[in-house]
Here is the input.
Amino acid sequence: MLGGSVIIESIFALPGLGQYAGDATGKGDTPVVMGVVVFTVLVVIFVNLVVDLINGWLNPKVRVK
Here is the structure.
């Protein structure tokens, strides 16, 4: 996920977490890399939770009885 972010940010010249993490990796700034990874993981977990809740709301076949 961060790799794709780095590519998109470099193509469109956008500042973002991918480039920030890449620069921190090059400088050996471990706390920044860990922070970016933890933030990315939390966002993915939250999005998955929201998608699962919406799926259960829209699709009656997956509802818990």
